[in-house]
Amino acid sequence: MKKFEEKTIKTTQIFDGKVVRLQVDDVQLPNGNTSKRELIKHPGAVAIIPITKDNKIVLVEQYRKPLEKSIIEIPAGKLEPGEDPEKTAVRELEEETGYTTKSISKVTSFYTSPGFADELMHIYLTDDLEKLENPPALDEDEFVEILEVTLEEAKQLVREQRIHDAKTNYAILYLEMQELR
């Protein structure tokens, strides 16, 4: 057994939903003892940092039920089975903002909550936005408002905790670091 590895003895599926699957694993710990791990399995997600020609960040405000409030975020969405993350990023950009792009670059990937979930978030950047004449419709259960803000305004939204999620905070920090170069 590798250092720190927890060997799965048994998996019990609790829930299989549209977005996540919940399971409880019985595991053998490195010291030989056993324990239980509650795990959320997620197909992965993407987010895109869209920058307009006048150097504004395109953000969306939407209600997040787990938080019981609206927050402001970079456009993002769940990967569909077998879908290329880059294609997902462009799709989400189009659906949520009405912009498209022909040029995106990968910034990073990170696990959102590795203590209990396997969701891998891919972050992309584009500064080659083009407004769509006929943008695709949002999902029927999705309601967003589009904001275009400067980096300074985005940092103020962070201070106000209106931007209050990891992916968007990462995006703001990334843009700030690029500005310092």
Tell me about this structure:
This protein has two domains: 7-41; 45-180, Nucleoside Triphosphate Pyrophosphohydrolase, CATH 3.90.79. 20% of the residues lie in helices and 40% in strands. The protein has three helices and twelve strands. The chain has helices at 85-97, 151-159, 166-180, and strands at residues 7-16, 21-28, 34-41, 45-50, 57-64, 69-73, 76-78, 99-101, 105-111, 120-126, 129-131, 145-149. Helix 2 (151-159) packs across helix 3 (166-180). The longest helix has 15 residues, at 166-180. The protein is elongated. The termini are far apart.
Give the CA-based shape: elongated
Total count of strands: 12
What order do the helices and strands follow? Answer: EEEEEEEHEEEEEHH
Structural class: alpha+beta
| Number of structurally distinct domains | 2
CATH architecture of the largest domain: Alpha-Beta Complex
Biggest sheet, in brief? Answer: 4 strands, mixed
Query: For this structure, what is the CATH class of the largest domain?
Result: Alpha Beta
* Mean of residue pLDDT values: 95
| Gap from first CA to last CA | 44 Å
Query: Which quaternary structure do these chains form?
Result: single chain
* CATH homologous superfamily (4th level) name of the largest domain: Nucleoside Triphosphate Pyrophosphohydrolase
The percent of residues in helical segments reads 10-25%
CATH level 3 topology of the largest domain = Nucleoside Triphosphate Pyrophosphohydrolase
Q: Tally the helices.
A: 3
Q: Strand sequence of the main sheet, in spatial order?
A: 7-4-10-9
Beta-strand share of residues: 35-45%
Low-confidence stretches: none
Rg from Cα: 19 Å
